[in-house]
């Protein structure tokens, strides 16, 4: 069965991991409550360039502009379809409207200028 995934790559400064994890757990609870199928927040552990024949992959730190004092996180949420994603996200955003994260004086524990986001249609599953 085809699925739809929202994916995020973000940079969290070292020392802000606990704050980010708390925020991520709140997000997990909201997305799962409103119907997401799965929710993952993954802190980078092995982000070296990989040799691929005569070439090397691009490292996540390079891709995101992360420095030595940063951690790169890869996060994703799984939905039934793009339409399901839109329905769930609408409910989550309405719930979060009054949370501290949406207030002007809230300091994000991540560098939003180094964040990437996209919606992806699952084409191959295993």
CATH architecture: 2-Layer Sandwich
Please tell me the total number of domains: 1
Give the fraction of residues assigned to helices.
Answer: 25-40%
How many DSSP-defined strands? 6
Taken in chain order, the helices and strands follow as EHEEEHEHE
Give start-end ranges of low-pLDDT stretches: none
What is the tally of helical segments? 3
Query: What fraction of residues sit in β-strands?
Result: 25-35%
Please give a structural write-up.
This protein has 126 residues and is of the alpha+beta class. The chain is built from 3 helices and 6 strands, in the order βαβββαβαβ. The strands form 2 sheets. Strands 2-5-1-6 form a 4-stranded antiparallel sheet. Strands 3-4 form a two-stranded antiparallel sheet. The model has no long low-confidence stretch (mean pLDDT 89).
Q: What is the topological layout?
A:
Layout: E1 4-13, H1 17-33, E2 38-43, E3 51-52, E4 55-56, H2 60-64, E5 70-79, H3 82-96, E6 116-121
Antiparallel strand pairs: 1-5, 1-6, 2-5, 3-4
Task: List the keywords.
alpha+beta; Alpha-Beta Plaits; two-stranded antiparallel sheet; flat
Q: How is this structure best summarized?
A:
The chain contains three helices and six strands; from the N terminus they run βαβββαβαβ. It has helices at 17-33, 60-64, 82-96, and strands at residues 4-13, 38-43, 51-52, 55-56, 70-79, 116-121.
